[in-house]
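Batch manifest, entry 17 of 40.
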Amino acid sequence: MLFDLENLQKNFGHLAALKGITLQMEADAVGLLGPNGAGKSTLLKVLLGLLPASGGRAAVLGMTVPDDAQSIRRAVGYMPESDCYLPYMTAVDYVSFNGQLCGLPRKEAFRRAHEVLFFVGLEEARYRKLGSFSTGMKQRAKLAQAIVHGPRLLLLDEPTNGLDPQGRDEMLSLIEDIQARDVHVVLSTHLLPDVERICDSVVMLNAGELIHAGTIADLQRGEEELLEVQTHLQDDQFRDHLLAADFDVIDDDGRLKIRIPPNRSSDDVLQLAVDEEIQIRHFMPERLTLETAFLQILDEADDASVQG
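Output type: structure tokens
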């Protein structure tokens, strides 16, 4: 069991960052998704014991927070979104220091620091000061400090942030290599293709609330047919007609994504276009992507919040 959460809460003054999250999750790799301010980074810090919970209960790998906080940090690697280094330290000193903080003896931490810096591709730069590193090198150094102590679980907060396409692909390849060593991964990111590549399950937060948890395969399976439709300058008008006819519609960068429930068919969409004199320019079935499913769940959560 990666996580066992019951009514987990975190408040910052009058702001409720986590609003009673209850969740049990068993998975090899979990994508933690949500818009900015959803509570993703706060949740990771509470699970690590870096922030005290305001209420509820949490366990990570069977260890409770905060009673087993030190044991959790020995078993868990954490790569934060923000920079977490002293610019005058060399990479090998930085990584070995973090290894000691996680319980490794000094000599062992220094030896392991050399190994993991070689693994992430920084062997030639391990004696350089971190302040001289590029963004990509800093991200690799942050990954190295997160794995130096051999964790069972790796928490990654926006690990590809600021990277170019090649650097992003290389970072994801490193994460895949770590997974192959039987290390569980939690990937918090706004880049949904990264989650589809790395993860088998997702946890979705919105405004501090849990709105979905489950496997990506189940999320994409569903019984509903998905259509991608584009009209000739009538997208907004057609979207209104579809919503009035009880179809679920997402406006995705100039194209309408329409979910067809089991009791309806794509012919109904075409007939509606004919009845309303809508000119269709693009009409084809589409696989339900994680992005489309996420937007749909987020829309439903926002609608429920407004109605509530």
